[in-house]
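Why Alpha-galactosidase NEW3 domain-containing protein? Reviewers of the renewal asked for a concrete example.
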Amino acid sequence: MIPAGIRAPFLTPTPCITAALIAIGLASTAPQAYAQSAASAAAQSPSGLWLTTPYPEFSAQAGKNVSVPLNLANRGLPPQRVELGVDGLPDGWKWEIDGGGKPVTAAIAGSDGTVSLTLKLTPPTGDLGKAVNFAVSGKASTEALKLPMAMTLTKTEPAKLTLEPKLPALRGTAKSAFDFQVDIKNDGQEDSTVNLLSKAPPGFQVTFKQGYGSQELTSLPLKAGESKTLSVSVQPPDNAEAGQYPVAVAASGGGANADTKLLLDITGRPSVSLSGPQGRLSGDATAGQERTFTFTLSNSGSAPARDLKLSASPPSGWKVTFNPEKVEEIAPGGTADVGVSMTPSTQAIAGDYMVSVRANGDGASDSANFRVTVRTSTMWGVTGLGVIGASALMLAFAVTRYGRR
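Here is what the prediction returned.
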């Protein structure tokens, strides 16, 4: 208490006190506001059982199995057991409801849970173009569910395959790699495993690969409407002559067939070999004297060998010439003779020497190492013997005339 005769001072709230009072007020009202918000959300959220599908109306091929996804949802209720069935299907239809991969006749939807189901139908072959109305039913302890659906039967489309090469013709030599890119498509309405076949000229090897893979194939799976790219590699034999060679490629599966034609345009390739006189790669020569050897150029390829120029790498001081220096053309299977004149160095000593002879042309070349056995000239031998004889005569004359001292 304030003593009598003393006036109590007037207190003005500070900013800190004001903020504290506001915080206390908010704290006291927050639980109430949260409770009201939760109650409002609970009041707005629907509760009950729902039987739904994303595809209530659809079409299917007559006589083919159809699968339709179903969902049984429970919102805000205790776990519910629901008996399942299908009503309104005409005679001749078959149906089944699967859950977890096996047929079921009832399902339990937990509180705020969803059960995934599948409706499987097998329609008869008739009634094409006619809409069939039916309903999937569900019966719980407290309510009955009904999902209206409609299906139209369509004609079964025949299986169909197509083969389409991106480049149907390729050109190259017998040594070239012929790799064709071929698109294969399943235009049918069913998945299929497609067998791959080929027919090529004798000696030609054909392999199938998918895209740019390395695994060779003899078949591949194709889903309905799916398209894939095949790599078809064709390897001709090394001795294939120039010309055009067709290769047939075929695919079969699911009662469907497709084929296409590929073309290899082989231009041919020359193959040149160089041999010495009578097939030998050795000969004799005399130091300082020219010796001509006949070399033979042969073309065993499948195309003409053109513009063959001759050259050599002789030892130092040697001279090598060719007649002719250039061979214009050698037909496949043909030959041409070339005169190779070699002049060993005048200072060459007796022995074996190696001369490399080369022929370089348009797309073909070959070389040969020719061994030359060099002998010195007989004139030098006679001269040497003369010098020795003259020296002996001079020595004998000196001894005879002057005697021994």
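The chain is about 15% helix and 50% strand. This is the kind of structural detail the renewal will allow us to pursue systematically.
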